[in-house]
Design goal:
alpha+beta; Ku70, Chain: A, Domain 2; seven-stranded mixed beta barrel; two-stranded antiparallel ribbon; extended
Length: 285
């Protein structure tokens, strides 16, 4: 399994389970480098001290909090380690809740919780007990110099942990109010019909990042001296008659598959004007 990001004990009551946390998901994207337009050299970003007027090594860096303009209180890593709360080593379960009571808006990052040697039996007991009682655990854990509130739940023969935003970090949604909007019964009925026509089991593997696929296709095309076709963007007409738009949407879903509009083709390479690969330009002597 991947490198763990936290090691400690998960406790509930007098039971202590040695565990490790492993990153469960990580975003994937194509990374670009910043180049100097004149010579195509990769740009560097050295740490520069404006007072000493020189570049600074990593070993010369300390952390500071700006309490007034250009005034800082300084901290060392050792000092920050000394104020770690107990949750830096012990993840105590504070309470058990029904998972449906936890708004997904609070979810941040996801981790797998793996048992260490000597903790497998207690780990499985906790997992099965939560699974059979339909409960999830609320706990706290400190990592990366922050104490997180987390929810731990059984999933796929193991425990999964989600760090959560604190309530104070959730932005209010007053601007999204729809209290003054009046809907007709027929509009609601048609909306339900449209939802039913689009209803399907959730299968995560069906979905992919088309933009990143297009970027990779563009890279491949440029490496071959080709260029790519522009992806056509949908033209969305303003909805003037909501009822009519609902009826047309349902009619399109009910039409035979052969009559359905073909999907827009992905970005593909074509053979026109050659786009040279950028090479570092040599300076003339």
């Amino acid at each position: 399994m991947a490198t763990s990001v936290w090691k400690g004990h998960l406790t509930f009551g007098l039971i202590s389970i040695p565990v490790r946390l492993f990153t469960a998901a990580r975003g994937e994207r194509v990374s670009f480098n910043q180049l100097h337009k004149v010579c195509n050299s990769r740009l560097k970003q050295p740490l520069m001290c404006p007072t000493c007027n020189r570049n600074v090594e990593r070993s010369e860096i300390v952390k500071g909090y700006e309490y007034e303009k250009d005034q800082y209180v300084l901290f060392t890593e050792e000092e920050l380690d000394k104020i770690e709360p107990p949750s830096a080593k012990v993840m105590e379960i504070l309470e058990f809740v029904k998972m449906k009571e936890v708004d997904p808006l609070y979810f941040d990052a996801s981790y797998y919780v793996g048992p260490e040697e000597g903790g497998t039996k207690a780990y499985k007991l906790l997992m099965l007990a939560m699974e059979e009682s339909s409960h999830a655990a609320i706990a706290k854990v400190t990592m990366h110099q922050r104490e997180h509130i987390v929810v731990v739940r059984p999933r796929a023969k193991g425990l999964t942990l989600h760090t959560m935003f604190y309530n104070s970090e959730i932005r209010a949604a007053e601007t999204l109010s729809t209290d003054d909007v009046q809907l007709k019964d027929q509009e609601k009925k048609l909306a339900h019909q449209l939802i039913e026509s689009l209803a399907a089991p959730f299968e995560a593997q069906k979905y992919r990042d088309e933009y990143q696929e297009n970027v990779k296709a563009m890279i491949a095309a440029k490496l071959k001296g080709q260029q790519v076709t522009e992806v056509r963007q949908p033209q969305l007409a303003p909805v003037i008659d909501l009822m009519e738009a609902l009826k047309k949407s349902i009619a399109e879903k009910q039409a035979p598959a052969a009559a359905a509009a073909p999907k827009k083709p992905p970005v593909r390479a074509v053979e026109p004007a050659v786009t040279p690969i950028a090479e570092k330009k040599r300076k003339k002597a």
